[in-house]
């Protein structure tokens, strides 16, 4: 990729690294989703830095950031906005909801009812939303970073398959290592490092960078390799429902974006292997026998990748 592209990515990672300790791979994946025009589901326990990471990314990109704390009593209009009648003028005025932004943090999205969760579907897929029959376009770029706690199940509503399929990736952050946690204590003990994060990239520049992804070469042999992995998810004996054609398209865009972030204008097999789990694991529905045996989608993908021949130049 062009030198300017690579330098800007390094600057973003450097600034975010001042706030988020030891999670460069997670930040790279979120930036990959942003470049590929996709959304991210962060699934992890509370307190590992999901909100902080989203704020740092938004600030480094000079993008508008809003956060919704989902609760069971939240309604769709709390997300999208509502028309309010003005008695003086006799007109309805639209009071916009938090969805009017560039980066939306949907915190604990699985605490909202299915009706409220579904209010995000049109926005995530078509970059628009409809209230009282009027459709409004969203700002560009638009990224949803949703979080959910995989441990606490009481008072939650599991995301339906249609909603899960709208997320480009599902990422687990994980706990920090000992020295990383020590660095967190010392860094945040001196103040809030988030205040040191400066804008590196504007929304307009980000959209221009997306256009450059068209120049990333994706060899036909690697296309076949990626498609074989996707198609094998539909045939695997442990799987009831495999990855959809939408998954193939998102996987394709994601791999090209990741290659660009790594400073290359071409895709390599390791890009596909590395991204297979975050892009595909939440799209697989296992059959009853596999669930009983505590088999996981990650195990299926490990098996498929192990048994799929890698293209050789």
Could you state the CATH homologous superfamily of the largest domain? Answer: P-loop containing nucleotide triphosphate hydrolases
**Largest sheet: number of strands, sense, barrel closure:** 5 strands, parallel
In terms of quaternary structure, what is this?
A: single chain
**Percent range for helical residues?**
40-55%
Q: What's the CATH class label of the largest domain?
A: Alpha Beta
| Total separate domains | 2
Strand content: 15-25%
Q: How many DSSP H or I helices?
A: 14
The whole-number mean of residue pLDDT values reads 86
Enter the CATH topology name of the largest domain: Rossmann fold
Low-confidence stretches: none
Enzyme class: hydrolase
Keywords: ATP-binding, Hydrolase, Nucleotide-binding
Domain ATPase AAA-3: 39-169
EC number: 3.6.3.-
Could you describe the 3D structure shown?
The protein is α/β, with parallel strands linked by helices. It folds into two domains: 3-204, P-loop containing nucleotide triphosphate hydrolases (Rossmann fold, 3-Layer(aba) Sandwich); 216-307, Orthogonal Bundle (Helicase, Ruva Protein, domain 3), CATH 1.10.8. The chain is built from 14 helices and eleven strands. A hairpin with a 4-residue loop joins strand 3 and strand 4 (91-96). Helix 2 packs across helix 11 (245-261), helix 11 (245-261) packs across helix 12 and helix 12 (269-280) runs antiparallel to helix 14. The longest helix is centred in the C-terminal third of the chain and has 17 residues, at 245-261. The two termini are 22 Å apart.
